[in-house]
Amino acid sequence: MVLSTGIDMDFSNTPPLDAGHIALFDMDETLVDFQGPLRDRLLLTQGPEEVFPSNLWDMPDHWYQRAQAIKREPGFWRNLPRLQWGWDVLNICQEIGYDIHILTKGPTTGPQAWAEKVEWVREHLPSATLHITDDKRIAYGRVFVDDYWPFMELWLRHRPRGLGIVNYESSKHENLVSIHDGMDVVRERLQEAFDMPLRDAIL
Ligand SMILES: [Mg+2]
After folding, report:
1. 22 CA to middle of ligand 1, Å?
2. What is the pTM of this model?
């Protein structure tokens, strides 16, 4: 493709871009079962008198340090299983015709974990475009599918016409729809967002 500057760029190694119909998908606890395997591994470290943390997102520091050590083990991220709710939404998006992009926060345990996220996506979703980032807010999409409300809230602030698909209460925001509202409702809202003219869908 020859650009306006006259430079001839080779895009043959770049996925096709349908900028108007991007659906962004989170990985951990959306497409990927992260908490289940982490819980199983942490249980192996529980002492006889120890209380297991009730919330794996907010653990006492000594449990958090164990979790970090588990997440640094080679293969931890690469071998995580799929999580069904995210794939149910993904299948609907693919049927409608969305361009699938994976939008995931880079793990705090370092570049090995980032590399294993690449391996996971290439194995399970070879045709998806992958973004591993420190900041999800800057990513554009008509749709964002994510289990974590703070990430969703920040994204919606920057994408006021975006549609968020979640696995918790959709009453938190008018632009949200939850899988608990029923997959027919999810499909309807996804189709509506897909059909919206591009000038209405973007800022
Ligand atoms: Mg998540």
Report:
1. 18
2. 0.90
